[in-house]
């Protein structure tokens, strides 16, 4: 006979084992989900590391691509446009211009060529503040440098002479009261300000330091970044970006972002790597705004009252704070204030390159700018050359059809507006129907080659739409009287996405569309070289062979 206690023991043992098995199964499932989540997160995290250091031999992205744990990596990982560290040219790196070192003894790491030291003996080249004689000497030596060799070359196509005014500004021998200014519009291809920062660093070695340039008051997109500055926001802000439209007046400012600061506590802090002579804050007065903001710099606080305007018309106002400025704190103290941005500038000769990135934008969104406001903002900034490097989303979108006629029409109209060619709504045309040269130089940079990997293959195939978009961009530029520069041709045309991704250093990220740091530098080198060649032809100076 079995006792009751023995019966209880035999009945409870299976129940305990079952619970242990259930707990073990739950742990196994949990670890499996953790492993899957890590596998899915790798493609988003690693692109930001790619190209971090030249000479890096660890092929992280190659490992991720071979794993294919969850299929193909995401096509547009926005983290790929973020720089881990400030990768703009620093004094220790002695940046190069047109593939040749100009400010020291270190040349381009890719070509290895080195020019004679062009710096002045008193060390003033460090700040880019030179005498007019020194500037002329640097410009002449720069123009005489031999053309870079050993890589692809693309020249600026300018049948309408749009670049004439810009070249004259570069070559002007008379004392200049303001810097030469280039404003670069782009999508996420320059979302981290890498390209514009490297162009700025290279031209600064010849023209001098004109300052950081324009920034929107707050970021318009989560992954928007700027080089050479620490940019922090806090408090209550409502941001309207030109991508989404929504503002009936179309007053987005030159940067495409309108930031409404709501008191109390709306605050922005800027900390620059190099001090500037002044900062200009752009803001709106209109019939719905009544507030005040403070601008603190050099331990001095300036208060600005924003009162409604008579008649309800919108007016763009500026507040100028004089330097030297390295840090600035802007706070909304009362009511609501509509900010369009801030421009950090130096007086006198130099160069400014504004990185105006409209992250995720299709080219057609340029129609959302109010024409008069947009043109007036570029005038107020003193832009000499406006550059458009957009179209990546027009190429890559599979859900949106590409209509060449409407693309050319809309893009041409936007180019005429930004360049100042619109007079009573119509451009001035030459006999052959092409717009004549405008007061502000205008240049269109084509899209880069982009690719994708089909399942079961390892070859990166170029997107078939890219040549069509390049041709449409060229047509729009020439119709509007703008110059055209083929970034696609500079990269090497069709199939270059494969070569740029698998090369060393790697020049494309794992989505085969965005540029690594090294890729941005290479594009900047080609762009500056094309500008140098155009300026040399305009000046009549011959290169030294």
What's the N-to-C terminus distance? 112 Å
Number of strands: 16
Strand pairing plus helix content: what structural class?
alpha/beta
Helicity, as a percent range: 25-40%
Please indicate the percent range of residues in DSSP E strands (runs of 2 or more). Answer: 15-25%
| Silhouette | globular
What do the pLDDT scores average to?
78
Order of helices and strands: HHEEHHEHEEEEEEEEHEHHEEEHEHHH
SS summary, helix count: 12
Q: Which ranges are low-confidence, i.e. pLDDT below 50, for 5 or more consecutive residues?
A: 1-12, 43-126, 423-429, 431-437
Largest sheet: 7 strands, antiparallel
**Rg estimate, integer Å:** 27 Å
Provide the descriptors you would attach to this structure in a database record.
alpha/beta, 545 residues, 30% helix, disordered N terminus, single chain, seven-stranded antiparallel beta sheet, five-stranded parallel beta sheet
């Amino acid at each position: 006979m079995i006792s009751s206690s023995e019966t209880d023991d035999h009945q409870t043992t299976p129940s305990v084992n079952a619970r242990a098995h259930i707990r073990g199964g739950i742990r196994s499932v949990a670890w499996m989900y953790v492993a899957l989540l890590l596998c899915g997160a790798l493609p988003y995290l690693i692109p930001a590391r790619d190209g971090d250091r030249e000479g890096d031999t660890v092929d992280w992205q190659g490992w991720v691509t071979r794993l294919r744990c969850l299929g193909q990596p995401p096509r547009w990982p926005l983290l790929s446009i973020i720089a881990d560290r400030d990768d703009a040219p620093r004094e220790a790196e002695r940046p190069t211009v047109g593939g040749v070192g100009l400010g020291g003894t270190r040349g381009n790491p890719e070509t290895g060529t080195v020019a004679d030291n062009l710096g002045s003996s008193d060390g003033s080249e460090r700040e880019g503040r030179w005498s007019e004689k020194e500037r002329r000497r640097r410009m002449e030596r720069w123009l005489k440098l031999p053309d870079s060799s050993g890589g692809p070359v693309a020249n600026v196509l300018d049948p309408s002479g749009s670049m004439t005014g810009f070249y004259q500004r570069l070559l002007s021998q008379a004392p200049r009261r303001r810097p030469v200014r280039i404003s670069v519009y782009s999508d996420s291809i320059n979302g981290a300000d890498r390209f514009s920062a490297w162009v700025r660093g290279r031209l600064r070695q010849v023209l001098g330091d004109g300052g950081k340039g324009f920034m929107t008051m707050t970021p318009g997109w989560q992954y928007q970044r700027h080089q050479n500055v620490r940019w922090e926001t806090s408090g209550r802000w409502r941001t309207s970006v030109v991508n989404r439209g929504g503002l009936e007046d179309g007053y987005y400012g030159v940067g495409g972002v309108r930031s409404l600061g709501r008191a109390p506590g709306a605050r922005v802090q800027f900390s620059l790597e190099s001090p500037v002579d002044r900062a200009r804050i752009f803001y709106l007065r209109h019939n719905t705004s009544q507030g005040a903001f403070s601008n603190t710099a050099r331990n001095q606080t300036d208060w600005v009252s924003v009162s409604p305007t008579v008649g309800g018309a919108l007016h763009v106002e500026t507040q100028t704070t004089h330097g030297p400025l390295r840090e600035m704190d802007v706070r909304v103290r009362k009511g609501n204030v509509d900010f369009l941005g801030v421009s950090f500038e130096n007086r006198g000769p130099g160069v400014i390159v504004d990185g105006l990135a409209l992250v995720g934008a299709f080219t057609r969104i340029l129609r959302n700018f109010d024409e008069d406001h947009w043109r007036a903002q570029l005038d107020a900034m003193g832009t000499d050359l406006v550059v458009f490097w957009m179209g990546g989303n027009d190429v890559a979108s599979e859900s949106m059809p590409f209509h060449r006629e409407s693309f050319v029409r809309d893009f041409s109209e936007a180019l005429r507006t930004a360049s100042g060619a619109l007079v009573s709504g119509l451009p001035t045309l030459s006999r052959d129907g092409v717009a004549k040269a405008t007061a502000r130089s205008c240049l269109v940079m084509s899209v880069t080659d982009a690719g994708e990997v089909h399942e079961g293959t390892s070859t990166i195939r170029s997107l078939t739409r890219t040549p069509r978009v390049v041709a449409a961009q060229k047509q729009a530029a020439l119709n509007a009287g703008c110059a055209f520069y083929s970034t696609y041709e500079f990269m090497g045309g069709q199939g270059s996405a494969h070569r740029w991704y698998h090369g060393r250093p790697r020049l494309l990220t794992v989505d085969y569309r965005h540029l690594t740091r090294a890729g941005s530098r290479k594009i900047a080198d080609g762009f500056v070289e094309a500008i140098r060649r155009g300026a040399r032809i305009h000046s009549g100076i011959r290169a030294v062979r």
